[in-house]
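Dear H.,

Thanks for agreeing to be a second pair of eyes. The structure we're designing against is below in token form, covering all 459 positions.
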């Protein structure tokens, strides 16, 4: 487990150990022993599977590509988590992301454990035929350890419904006659995927922001004014006033979160900046997000990079360096790219007072502490970006029942689930002087500890 996740889990366990109302049957030496055992269980994955996928490229060369599947914990249900195709993938990163999935599912009461997969490669370097082969080989090599009731992969950075369709098909042919629909989620709708899955993470990311700064804030304003908490002051500062947002990353998560902000009828938003791997686009009056989505859908996902492309997109914007998106003077910064984007060396340039983690682990531990001490509200990954896995759960259920919900039904269920979590967490967060991440971790760790205790795993 990477240091930040491990550290916060340990803090949560230390606090729970002292709280005698939590698992009151555990006393004295037995209590200490049980908590030591919890720390060991949560800080290490149950299994790390590693393989080298042997692929014959179209030019005749044969390569072996490192690939992983990490199964962190399955106390709450089958392991669950995406498969990432990216050149920076490594064992430690996949293990950390798997641990985050365990916590994310526990926090939102999704009956799954935590897992994650990764293949060390840049998908842009391979042809469609080669990518298909890579997906088949991945399933082939890991087919013994995955399955609808064992470990259920889904899309992540660099993968989408096309890859999940290929993978499910391979799983089906390796295990003829066995249940297969629930072996992968994030599939295309025609192939048993769920309506609303593709947009679910981005929708959920924006919903957490809207719920905190609009629904909850308006309902609880009188109480919030009475609490002596720096985060409550930050939030109240945004009541009934226009919000400026910048969004790092314009993929499946960032573009949908930006669109939700653009279309929101509750908050008076202006999305003034978006970025991708090439550029930041900025306009002080707000960007035309639908036009940018239309442009990226026709241009391999890339935003316009020069005046000519901007006029093709029919968008007015200033072109800035890609990392400028982080440092703009905005109210809200949505991080929907990769991990470790805000760190020790750039944290003092951040001006936003609210940060929403659409990506997993985009703020390092040191930066998180520095910003939280300044009263910046960071809506953590495990709270904000769970929309994807929540709708994956609905997809898995629909596959079992072979009954499918409408997109409207899926969205309603998604927001209901996220609202339930926010309603549990926000009063604690604004009541206690702890950052939101700490509150979410305590809640998730409590859930996991109780289950592990009830299952007799703490010895
Ligand atoms: N990869 C996504 C995540 O990090 C979705 C996982 C899933 O649907 O299982 O949450």
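And this is the sequence the design step returned. I haven't edited it by hand at all.
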């Amino acid at each position: 487990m990477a240091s930040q996740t491990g550290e916060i889990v340990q803090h949560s366990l230390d606090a729970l150990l002292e709280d005698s109302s939590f698992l009151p049957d555990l006393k004295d030496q037995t209590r200490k022993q049980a908590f030591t055992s919890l720390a060991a269980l949560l800080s290490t994955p149950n299994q790390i599977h590693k393989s080298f996928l042997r692929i014959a490229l179209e030019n005749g060369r044969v390569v072996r590509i490192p690939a992983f599947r990490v199964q962190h914990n399955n106390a709450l249900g089958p392991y669950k988590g995406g498969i990432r195709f990216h050149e920076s993938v490594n064992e430690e990163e996949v293990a950390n992301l798997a641990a985050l999935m365990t916590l994310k599912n526990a926090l939102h009461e999704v009956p799954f454990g935590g897992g994650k997969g990764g293949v060390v490669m840049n998908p842009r370097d391979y042809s469609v035929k080669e990518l298909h082969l890579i997906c088949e080989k991945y399933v082939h090599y890991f087919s013994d350890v995955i399955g609808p009731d064992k470990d259920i992969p889904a899309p992540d950075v660099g993968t989408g419904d096309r890859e999940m369709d290929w993978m499910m098909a391979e799983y089906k042919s390796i295990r003829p006659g066995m249940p297969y629909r629930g072996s992968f989620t994030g599939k295309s709708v025609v192939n048993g995927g769920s309506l609303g899955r593709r947009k679910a993470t981005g929708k959920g990311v924006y919903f957490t922001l809207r719920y905190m700064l609009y629904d909850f804030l308006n309902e609880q304003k009188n109480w919030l004014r009475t609490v002596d908490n720096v985060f409550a002051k930050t939030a109240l500062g945004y009541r009934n006033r226009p919000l400026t947002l910048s969004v790092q990353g314009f993929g499946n998560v960032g573009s949908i979160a930006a669109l939700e902000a653009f279309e929101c009828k509750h908050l008076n938003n202006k999305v003034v900046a978006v970025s991708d791997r090439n550029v930041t686009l900025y306009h002080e009056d707000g960007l035309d997000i639908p036009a940018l989505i239309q442009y990226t859908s026709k241009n391999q996902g890339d935003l316009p990079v020069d005046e000519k492309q901007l006029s093709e997109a029919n968008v007015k914007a200033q072109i800035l360096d890609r990392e400028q998106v982080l440092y703009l003077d905005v109210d809200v910064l949505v991080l929907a790219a990769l991990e470790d984007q805000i760190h020790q060396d750039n944290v003092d340039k951040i001006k936003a007072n609210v940060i929403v983690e659409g990506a997993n682990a985009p703020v390092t531990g040191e930066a998180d502490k520095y910003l939280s001490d300044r009263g910046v509200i960071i809506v953590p990954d495990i709270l904000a970006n769970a929309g994807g896995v929540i709708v994956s759960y609905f997809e898995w259920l629909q596959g079992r029942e072979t009954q499918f919900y409408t997109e409207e039904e899926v969205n309603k269920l998604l927001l209901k689930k996220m609202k339930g979590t926010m309603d549990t967490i926000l009063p604690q967060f604004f009541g206690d002087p702890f950052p939101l991440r700490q509150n979410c971790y305590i809640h998730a760790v409590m859930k996991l500890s109780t289950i592990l205790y009830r299952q007799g795993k703490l010895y």
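Two observations from my side: The radius of gyration is 22 Å. The pocket of glutamic acid is lined by residues 80-82, 154, 156, 185-186, 360, 385, 388-389, 392 (CB under 6 Å).

Warmly,
E.
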